[in-house]
Amino acid sequence: MRRFVRLGALDDVRRLLDRMHPADMVQILRTLAPAERKAFTDVLLAHERAGEVLADLPEPQVEEILVQVSNERIASLVSRLAPDKAADLLRLLFEDRVVAILKLLDEKTAAILDRLMTYGPETAGGMMTTRFLALDRHTRVGEAVSRIRSEPEAEMVFYLYVVDETQRLEGVVSLRQLVLAGQDQELREIMNPKAIRVRVDTPRAEVADVISRYNLLAVPVVDASNVLCGIVTVDDAIDAITDETTREVYRMAGLNTEDRIATPPYESVRRRLPWMILNLATAILASWVISFFEASIAQVVALATLMPIVASMGGIGATQASTVIVRGIALGEIDFSSARRALLKEILVGMTIGVATGLVMALTAFVWKGNPWLGLIICLAMILNLLVAGASGAAIPLLLKWLKLDPALGSSVIVTTFTDCFGFMSFLGLGTLLLSHLK
Amino acid sequence: MRRFVRLGALDDVRRLLDRMHPADMVQILRTLAPAERKAFTDVLLAHERAGEVLADLPEPQVEEILVQVSNERIASLVSRLAPDKAADLLRLLFEDRVVAILKLLDEKTAAILDRLMTYGPETAGGMMTTRFLALDRHTRVGEAVSRIRSEPEAEMVFYLYVVDETQRLEGVVSLRQLVLAGQDQELREIMNPKAIRVRVDTPRAEVADVISRYNLLAVPVVDASNVLCGIVTVDDAIDAITDETTREVYRMAGLNTEDRIATPPYESVRRRLPWMILNLATAILASWVISFFEASIAQVVALATLMPIVASMGGIGATQASTVIVRGIALGEIDFSSARRALLKEILVGMTIGVATGLVMALTAFVWKGNPWLGLIICLAMILNLLVAGASGAAIPLLLKWLKLDPALGSSVIVTTFTDCFGFMSFLGLGTLLLSHLK
After folding, report:
1. B431 and B341 within one domain
2. In this prediction, does ipTM exceed 0.85?
3. DSSP 3-state assignment of B204?
4. Domain of A62: which CATH number?
5. Does one domain contain both A219 and A139?
6. How far is the C-alpha of A197 from the C-alpha of A231, rounded, in Å?
7. Nearest-CA neighbor of B52 among B88, B11, B103?
8. Which one of A286, B50, B134, B310 has the lowest number of neighbouring Cβ atoms within 10 Å?
9. Are residues B96 and B139 in the same domain?
10. Cα gap A293→A304, rounded to integer Å
11. Average pLDDT over every residue of A244-259
């Protein structure tokens, strides 16, 4: 495929596209060089399944493509897409373009998309599709089956939703139950009335969690008065889980989720710079701690040589502790009492590791620098700092969670500032106290 | 629930369990204190859905529970579970217990489980269930529907698999296509012959990726001669994605995946210690680099005060670069040519951020220490070190990937060792060269 693109054999590209799954087109777009991507995109946009490909691409890439496409073309792509995907695409455009495009669509589609766009993209409302099948509870099985036959558009109909006269959700019937039931039974007899549901404003991560926890293929979305508004399907839950993962990993490193491999360098610099400036400030803080001990360092230079070891081990210990806690929070393994236990455990683990590595380091320092007191000091400082590392590594994400902030965001910068400053302070402080033994 | 457990009102607990979804029981078990957990587990194990709960718990917790349970009890739990979940449970037991338990089961179940256990738990074979429906290609739709009616056990039958006489996979029919088709059509007429499939030895992450990329509810698993062996359902794909995420996050922090919040402290210490010792070794290496410049530090102590800033900024820059690359690899966004571009980009981004933060730091150092040369030196060292940070942060995960190793594993330790050593070397080296201007 790539060879055809490079050779400009666009007819061959077109032929290949016809035989391809949209997911594979996405894969190709992701790995093409910028120049090749341009040529490929042009062919792709003329293809009838282009919408599906766009819906699966990372947002910045889609934005880049959409600015080059006419409103008419977008309207035609959007009209062929599932409403949830269509709304996601439109959300990436400026308000005035959206208005113009909605005018080009038929009235019903435009109304649905307009409503879907009012929901936040990070909520069930923003994830849901309106292509579902809702039938009255008195519908008979035979009739329900013919209704399915007549609505080939409904997305992944593996559940039928049963509603009352006012569209309130009463229950769910799986396609499987439908096949197993007698033709004359009413839906309310075979439905599961305790169907798990989410609200339009349920956060995306929670929707994904419900689908994954209860092994559902789709979950119905209702408004405040239990009126069925849409469904979220398992494939969107998987996308949400993948996105949340990226967000967690990225936040721990202080990265913005839109900073990806394909992001242009100046964009990446712009997004990373604030975090780096913040970290520079914390590094200056740690350096300021050191400056109080300059007199001691001038007398015993070995203190300067060894001090980064104390700080670095603390940083790594704290990162391990906070990773375990942040992941535990993400997986829902933590509540109030387990949080206290987890904190105590991390302190104990930190201290024990401090003793073990501290002893190794004491011996190393003694052999290297020939002074047993130096060994004693670094051993004590490491124990203290790894204890603090365990405590802060566990406490800070928990505190952020308790403050209803993202535990992953900022954990690392706060935690390592703590261990850097405390590490330098304990080691250089002990060194200053026992200075007479070191000279 | 927790109050009932604490009060020892076990009859109430039992009653509540009857009305509960197994997923909710898992949630409760996860958050109970160890003492309460014991009481709860006793009641739970007598419950008929205990197997489903065990199948959803983290492995170490299940192992802990299973040692206290008789073989008869396990056999009865296992016989009620889907074969893939049952095999997962048995895998956690010692060989001789497994043999004893298999003898207690009926011959057919024992044979299936015995075969499933031969596949690696990290492959499609280890994830698949054998509860699927495979019918001959000449079966008529009406007959297929009655077959579904007679096999209520088949897990999540939303697809029917079509096979030839030798059980080779010919195609797939969705339950939806079955409902839409005429009663007298043969399955081969309505099936999708290009059904996406995986091999028994396909790695777990790849199976999950196929299901998620093509939005499947289940994927058929075939052996080397295309004989249908089982199916992997979307809920297992979600579990696999969650596990892979934890693994990636954990590996970047040098943690073992079994080191969770509920892991006992001594276990955590044992698992973390090797990584900490490795990091101690790299910290000593960095400290050894510093020791070459002790003479310069003794003359200009400000060098010691400022040097951790250079190393720390490099470490953070490198972590950001490697996070972007590791995530990109996990999401399949990287191939040979995009890897080269990504590497060049990270070098450029690192250098630019180095210039920006270096200038800020130069000014700070000048104002603080009153020496413009010190500012110049730290600025140059930061630019160099952030350039190296970008290069190594991108290159090392790519190299690990190219060597067919896990890019997340070890990236952080290698990368930060690099930036620590190089940071100290460049800053102290420049400081030594220009020492006369600093005194």
Report:
1. yes
2. no
3. helix
4. 1.25.60.10
5. yes
6. 9
7. B88
8. B134
9. no
10. 10
11. 84
All residues of chain B having their beta carbon less than 8 Å from the beta carbon of residue A249 are: 248-249, 252, 323, 326-327
Q: Shortest CB distance from B316 goes to which of A149, A279, A305?
A: A279
Tens digits of residue pLDDT in B146-178: 888 777 665 556 788 999 989 999 999 988 788
Q: Does one domain contain both A9 and A48?
A: yes
B181 and B286 housed in the same domain:
no
**Judging by beta carbons within 10 Å of its beta carbon (0-12, 13-18, 19+), is residue A267 exposed, middle or buried?**
middle
Indicate whether A234 and A312 sit together in one domain: no
**Of A200, A217, A250, the domain-final residue:** A250
**What average pLDDT does chain B have?**
87
Q: Which of B252, B277, B302 is the last residue of a domain?
A: B252
Domain that holds residue B349: 265-438
pLDDT at A23 over 60: yes
pLDDT given at position B415: 87
CATH number, domain containing residue B240: 3.10.580.10
The answer to whether residue A355 sits within a structural domain is yes
In order, the DSSP letters of A101-164 are: HHHHS-HHHHHHHHHHTTS-TTBHHHH-BS---EEETT-BHHHHHHHHHH-TTSTT-SEEEEE-
Q: How confident is the model at residue B22 (pLDDT cuts 50, 70, 90)?
A: confident
Q: For residue B258, tell me if it sits in a domain.
A: no
**Cβ A437 vs Cβ A373: under 8 Å:** yes
Count structural domains, chain B: 3
Q: Nearest Cβ partner of B313 from A180, A276, A307? A: A276
Contact A33 B341 (CB under 8 A): yes
Cα of B427 to nearest chain A Cα, Å: 14
Q: Which range (A53-67, A392-406, B94-108) has the least confidence?
A: A53-67
Co-location of A413 and A310 in the same domain: yes
pLDDT in tens, B342-387: 999 999 999 999 999 999 999 999 999 999 999 999 999 999 999 9
Contact B435, B299 (CB under 8 A): yes
Q: Which residues of A touch B312 (CB under 8 A)?
A: 279, 283, 286, 416, 420
Q: Give the model's pLDDT for residue A88.
A: 86
CB B185 within 8 A of CB B141: yes
pLDDT score of B152: 63
Residue A108: both structure tokens together: 């019903």
Asked whether residue A237 is assigned to any structural domain, the reply reads yes
Domain shared by A302 and A184, yes or no: no
In a domain? residue A128? no
Q: Please report how many Cα atoms fall inside a 13 Å half-sphere around the Cα of residue B305, on the Cβ side.
A: 21
pLDDT band at B421 (very low <50, low <70, confident <90, very high): very high
